[in-house]
Amino acid sequence: MTNTDFNTPITHNSDWLFLFDGTHTNPNGNPDADNQPRIDWQPQGPIALSSDVRQKQFVRQVIQQWMSDAQHAQGYDIFVNRQAFSEVVTAQKRFEQFLKENHLARAPLEDKIAALLHRYIDIRWFGVLIPLKGKDNKNTNTKNSKKDSPSKNNAQNAKQNPEVSQIKMEDLSGQNSATESPADNPAPNDVDSPAIDIPSDSPSRSDKGDAIVRIGPIQITWATSLHPVELLSHTLTSTFASTDNKNQGTFGNDHRLRYAFMASSGVINVARAQQTLLTPLDVDLFDFSLIHGFALVPSRSKIGLASRFYLRIEYRDRFTTAGDLRERIHPVISTNEPTRLADVQMDLMPLMDWITDHAEAIEHVWYWHDPIQTPLDAASQQALHAHPLCQPLDMNHLRNTFLNPPVRSMTASK
After folding, report:
1. How many other C-beta atoms lie within 10 A of the C-beta of residue 339?
2. What are φ and ψ of residue 220, in 5° steps?
3. Mapping DSSP to helix (H, G, I), strand (E, B) and coil, where does residue 88 land?
4. Is the dihedral of CA 364, 395, 404, 296 positive or negative?
5. What are the tens digits of pLDDT across the range 276-289?
6. Minimal CA–CA distance to 128: which of 277, 317, 292?
7. Which of 283, 286, 275, 137 is nearest to 214 (CA)?
8. Would you say residue 5 lies in a domain?
9. Assigned domain for 9 exists
């Protein structure tokens, strides 16, 4: 927990670590492989993967499904939102819909962007790329601007990367007809949304050319299992026929992992936050939504996933970083084939030593762990609770903030 400031962008960088596990789940199905769990085949065995996009989808869905329409309108809406359309649309069309609904079609571009940042928390978190057309595309008639300009490159990136320029609405709602299992259609949360996350080589801001570009201040790694996993496949039958002329149900495959203990890490960047106007309150809501995402937006293949541990280091300066925090923890696996949380314990002492060594550069270390089943070993728990920089997240405060967020002021968006 930071503080409840909702009008001023953050002033501290952060590194964070998130640990979760799942029994008989599919953390992230691969539509190119019959929706099997994503796997990195390593010499020591298959390592489970969950993309950054899948993790962002959980966080977005918490806000979208649990906050009211009134709260969405007050600055906590989701731009990458399947419910807004019944078909695949471009980010540009989603933007045009927003302008029409808010009577901003004739407004100056800077006012449109201010309103966009004010309303959509997922843009403040993760950024956006929206190709422009018409009067908003100010360089279309300027010959010199067409020559190797960053905005031209942005438009080319959008054309060459459909996952950047389009909101893949069928991916947000569930699997499309080419990938869904005829035996048992997954729930709407079961497929990644490539959505509109931004290429890493795009400039952080480009509003006067061919696109609105904001690289998100919150960036997330792909989650990986900390041990080799075992894949399970089962054949299922469906009550319903696949087509009208069929007289019986169809068959399909259901793919799961027997057990996976997984870790992801990420950053929150102050420089990017100045461009999306990410506030401390937005960070609080990210913390809450990440921790509670599995429980609040379950689906058929995700119902066994559970959050186990979250830690965020907030720095005093803009230069200190611990890097990927997964490199500073050590999993202790008690068996070659873990099947439950009791088979895994986490040694945080390398990370705790780093925190102690860099104490002068650290403002706070916020943490949360499952109060019933913590994955931390005894020494790590003791060191974490005793360290003067480490403070547990006030989950009651975060819950109350989530249930009754303050109305954002438009002055925060200008």
Report:
1. 12
2. -125, 135
3. coil
4. positive
5. 999 999 999 999 99
6. 277
7. 275
8. no
9. no
Q: Is 133 helix (H, G, I), strand (E, B) or coil?
A: coil
Give me 355's structure tokens: 């925190």
* Number of DSSP helices (H) and strands (E) in the chain, helices first: 13, 18
Residue 6 lies in a domain: no
Residue 183 CA to residue 241 CA, distance in Å, equals: 9
Query: What does the pLDDT look like over 338-349, one tens digit per residue?
Result: 999 999 999 999
User: Which domain covers residue 270, as residue numbers?
Assistant: 14-413
Asked if 214 and 276 count as a contact pair (C-beta separation under 8 A), the reply is yes
Taking the C-alpha atoms of residue 186 and residue 207, their distance in angstroms, rounded to an integer, is 39
What pLDDT sits at residue 200? 41
In the block, residue with structure tokens 């008989």: 24
Dihedral sign computed on CA atoms, order 297, 301, 304, 306:
negative
- Give a yes or no: residue 4 inside a domain: no
Q: Quick one: tokens of 31?
A: 């539509």
What span, in angstroms and rounded, lies between the C-alpha atoms of 91 and 129?
A: 7
Which has more confidence, 53 or 245? 53
Residue 90 has phi, psi (to 5 degrees) of -80, 160
pTM (2 d.p.): 0.83
Could you give the number of structural domains in the chain? 1
Residue 134's SS3 state is helix
Alpha-carbon distance of 308 to 21, in angstroms, equals 7
User: Hey, is 314 helix, strand or coil?
Assistant: strand
Angle (CA) 47-201-120 rounded to 5° is 85
Radius of gyration of the chain (CA): 22
